[in-house]
Amino acid sequence: MGFGDLKSAAGLRVLNDFLSDKSYIEGYVPSQADIAVFEAVGAPPPADLFHALRWYNHIKSYEKQKASLPGVKKALGKYGPADVEDTTGAATDSKDDDDIDLFGSDDEEESEEAKKLREERLAQYESKKSKKPAVVAKSSLLLDVKPWDDETDMAKLEECVRSIQADGLVWGSSKLVPVGYGIKKLQIQCVVEDDKVGTDMLEERITAFEDYVQSMDVAAFNKI
Questions:
Q1: Which of 3, 46, 151, 197 could pair with 192 in a Cys bridge, judged by C-beta atoms 3.0 to 4.6 Å apart?
Q2: Number of Cβ atoms within 10 Å of the Cβ of 173
Q3: 138-223, which class in CATH?
Q4: What are the residue ranges spanned by the domains of the chain?
């Protein structure tokens, strides 16, 4: 099990494929598994690996809360698809070996010609990258909003929920679903841009209507 070397293009492609039908490394909420892989990646993946880039930007938004996320960090090789060999240890050993120069280098300093060529290629790459259209990662959410009791004004509760406006948030259809003892919950759909709106923000703002709302849960989470 593993992703391979997440500093390499091959490792990032494995991560991108792994996240093509998942929102997080493990489970349905951000956890220490995401933080472990996020730290191993170290930098935003290329724009063409949009599943990995969407996930990276989303986990980056939890930077200040990362210590409070659930779970316990495991070795990096414990995460990822089962059919990929864990090469993280081998990659580290190889790097350590490469750092030992037994004979010294004949080219201690980069030649002016090589330096100029490298800078030209970097400039060309940056130019091509800037012309690519940005991929906007979106998700469709189905939220369960539970009232306090059967006397809660559900029309007013839904009005409060829909009053929440944010860039990257669009509310959709809704319905009332019986949960027992005459109590009904509000089930409402919304579409969010992953880089702009997170489930933690939605929960914080919806439960702020404490006269009507007891709790909010994510019933379904699908990437678009």
A1: 197
A2: 9
A3: alpha beta
A4: 9-78, 138-223
